[in-house]
Amino acid sequence: MATKWNISNVDKQKIVGIFGILISLASLAYIAITVDIGLAFNSLLKIQWYWIFLATAIYLSTFLLRTARWKKMLKNYSGIPFKVYFESIMLGFAGNNLLPAKGGELVRMEYFSSKTGISRVTAFSSSMLIKIIDGFAILLILIVTIWLAQLPFFKNNLIMNITISAASIYLIIIVFAIVLRVQGKRIIEKLNTKIAKKKSFLRDNIEKIYSSLVFLNFDRNTAQILSLSTIIWLMESVVFVIIIYALAPEIDYISAGIVTLAVVNYGLIIPSSPGFVGLFQGLTILSLGLFKICEETALAASIAIHLCQFLLVTLWGIVIFFRQSLKLFYN
Predict the structure, then answer these.
(1) Could you tell me if 187 and 180 are in contact, meaning their C-beta atoms sit under 8 angstroms apart?
(2) Distance CA 51, CA 49 (A)
(3) What is the pTM of this model?
(4) CA 199 vs CA 180, 191, 203, 205: distances in Å
(5) Interacting residues of 108 by C-beta distance below 8 A, sequence separation 6+
(6) What is the pLDDT of residues 118-142, one digit of tens each?
(7) CA 157 to CA 33: how far, in whole Å?
(8) Under a CB-based contact definition with an 8 Å cutoff, are residues 69 and 232 in contact?
């Protein structure tokens, strides 16, 4: 008789976490072998402090827009303070920097749910929708950049095929999302009729995706959510542009920053260690290599950008966590 494997969600999380750590270690090993670490740190030390300060300030300011976007997404849940949204997001990002398998998403969901009484499913679904919108916003910015800058390496068949494939996948996702948003209830009812009382991977996942889309309507509020998402990622691209300019002002640093932003954020879908250490650096080196930037300079850029996005956000999240813990302790 065949053995039936039953892997719990906790076990899956552990497997993903271990796999992610192995990927990060492999990335770090490759960097250690191929890059002159000493030269990279010498390049890093040449960056003027004010570029780091400016890039960090811009990155932190995006969290106000992220908060406003989430609040608009859950506009039907009135009375939730802006502060609760903001702290939930900060905890989520800090958690991703400290926990494996993007455990910060669970931290954000639990904190938000405990503070508001809103179900974990609603919190998770809205977070899932944000990721879909973010992916589309990044792709839109990338395509516009390629078109305006006429980047020569995108004439390369391999790179062009990858770009077209990514665009096609997101176009399919968007069409599927629109159809599911409009016809979701009818589709789920038909699936329930055909496979009633039986577990179905298809039905269960369609229900989850549909629940994440109920926050969107074809109205002004949705247009504002999409606009905020585009602005957020334009601002994040500026962080990349600033650091690349500080290290290599002679290249097309605007295009390099946007392309690197896209490569890094799409690449981080792959599981990695807490804080994406190793994978973040490897993806940055890969993308900046398209602009003929040497690996040492690219590694320096990756470390500087990573610090801008990691240090203060993580510290802020830790402060929120301990402050909340103290409140619970004394109450």
Answers:
(1) yes
(2) 5
(3) 0.88
(4) 20, 11, 8, 11
(5) 88, 89, 91, 92, 95, 123, 127
(6) 888 888 888 888 988 998 899 889 8
(7) 29
(8) yes
